[in-house]
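Hi all, long-time lurker, first post. I run a small reading group and we've been trying to get comfortable going from sequence to structure in the token notation. Rather than ask abstract questions, I figured I'd post a concrete chain and ask someone more experienced to write out its structure so we can walk through it together at our next meeting. Sequence below, copied exactly:
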Amino acid sequence: MIIQTRYARVVDRIRIINAERLELVKALAMNDISDIETVWNENRMEDLESQISILLRRGKLLKNALQFMFLSVFTSIISSPLLFIQYMVGTSMTLPIIALFSVGMVLIFMGSICTLKEMGKSFVAAVLDTKTLERRKGQP
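-- Answer (accepted) --
Happy to help. Here is the structure in token form:
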């Protein structure tokens, strides 16, 4: 659930930033703004494009993590009936059960790695956002 929430927030943030970027493009295209606003808008556009790039990478990592986690759940779901059949019928299905369990563990591990990588990148976009604010405070 946490990964899904993070993924949804990243996608929402991409949409919000893209909407802001489109407004800045529109303002620059209309040329109805002062020189100071033009410079600020151009700097903001650079920062927004950097943020979108970071958020797209984060979104891809989270999407991969979700896929790995759901595939892991799927391997568990498949192994449960196999365990039941082995118990009820007495047929040895140890190898497929162990294989599915092992694949599931590898998938959980891969999903966890993707999530950890995404968490490492999560602060960078916020730093870019504050960079724009610091630049704005420095202007007269």
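A couple of things your group might point at:
The chain has a mean pLDDT of 87.
The chain has one domain: 2-138.
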